[in-house]
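Here comes just one.
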Amino acid sequence: MRVARLRHQKQRLTYYDLDLKSNSLARGLESIGVKRGDRVAVSLGNGIEYAIVPLNPNFNITQVAAALSHLSATHLIISTEANLPRREPRSNLPLLTQIVPDLRNRRLESALVPSLKNIILVQNDNGRVDTSSFGFITSFSSILSELVLDMRSLPPQGLDPHDIVNIQFTSGTTSMPKAACLSHRSILNNGAQIGDRMLLTAKDVVCCPPPLFHCFGSILGYMATSTHGSAIVFPSESFNAIATLKAVQEEKCTALYGVPTMFVEELELLEDGTVPYEGFRHLRTGIAAGSSIPAELMKKLHRTLNLTELTICYGMTETSPVSCMTTTDDPIDKRINTVGRLMPHVEAKVVDPSNHGKILPVGSKGELAVSGYLVMKEYWDAPEQTAAAMRADEEGKIWMHTGDEASISADGYVTITGRIKDLIIRGGENIHPLEIENCLFAHPGVSNVSVVGVPDERYGEVVAAFVVAREEGEKGITSDEIRSWVREKLSNHLDSAPFLKKFAVVNLGLCLLRLPRNPNSVRMIFAQWEANEPCPSMQSLWMNALRIANASQWRKEIGGHEVVHKPYGASGLASPSSRSLWTTPPPFHDS
């Protein structure tokens, strides 16, 4: 059995190989001064070298420096190039020279990150970057080979299951993401329960294009497969739709992971013949996460990729990350219209957003809160933010308040209606962007859509849907058709429907249109599109938004969402436990 297949690196590892290499890396890191409690930051794409604390390779110098300083990181593992989806490789040398101005110096000195003691460089540039003159930098390969001649495990380090193993930065675009502290116990058990819901076995082969710097790749991907002896395939360093489909075909994958934007791109390649429609009969299950999945897309994945047991899961970085998930045999309407039920050993409640102590009746809409082993320990060095998100009830039980509006049915299925702060209030009427997006996704002429609220003098806010049409020109749909479709299907008003060729996308497919109502972020969005694909109607819409003077009324950040939909267990009900929680990893057997 092969535990990991890294196709772009031409690497195949068994569990035994992985154990030896992990021991080697642990000893190598120890040999360069890493000790218990140190924060080792990693800025890499998907690859064999991955370890945590993870940093998004898309971070700029300001974000990297802020993250390293915030954590007082002692070591940084970084690649010579950052390979990001749909972009040319970007050299990391400018970033490194900002952190350490003189790379030739034999001693690492960084005024920007004073805590930094060592930089470990992963060479992934195929010879494009000359590092021969670097003085203080340690090569990753030397840690595994020259520094470590044996692959024995380290002596006991006095670790505890409740110790922090992963400081995971929440998603963020307009401000520095928060650093959620996750324990060995929380991510091990969450990964195991995710695999249970998918019915993973040692015979399964999971294709995992989502990034390892995100919980989707590291926990839903690696932890779920490793706790069930399944194989995992990483098709490329960053998402590549063609590489993903070829990996599924050639590795005979039984499961496929992705966010809606990934699945849409893969289906388009099959529809236009770029990738032949063959070799997908082995697929049965997978995970759709990252943002809500439209009903029409779910049905296409069933028909086209044989993902008849596709699951939906929801969570956030702060909950390790999945708090709710559908099963492989949930009825299709449950997998389309709900996000399943609560994970074992987890409780949930729906509360009044204006009074968190008031639990709402079953079926009522309110803010979702979850409790249990999966809740993070804290935001690193941010007590005020921790206290705002994690609140104790009268019995002293800690609840993570998600910021999502949800309702829970009598049989425990959860429906997410949107972010509490994402509500569009048009003339006093509450309108949920998700409801209109799902309506528009059902239109045969729509490829992608994002609905936002835009300030308006008359109504306070009006509704705008940014639409990517399936076809352009005379064959394509018009704004009038889009508005008529919404009026026919819903009572909501759609005030504007500008068209784009594509969306600007960050991380796991979160559309920038949906993120901020912060003037600086609006400028960023507009500038990015204006430089590539000018759109007069979009320009007037967003330039109108820039005239809003009171920035405090605008949403400043997206709130740290990580995985998809949302939880179960209304009014404080807990789900049944399927197994006891692990405090130590399960035994692995290599074959």
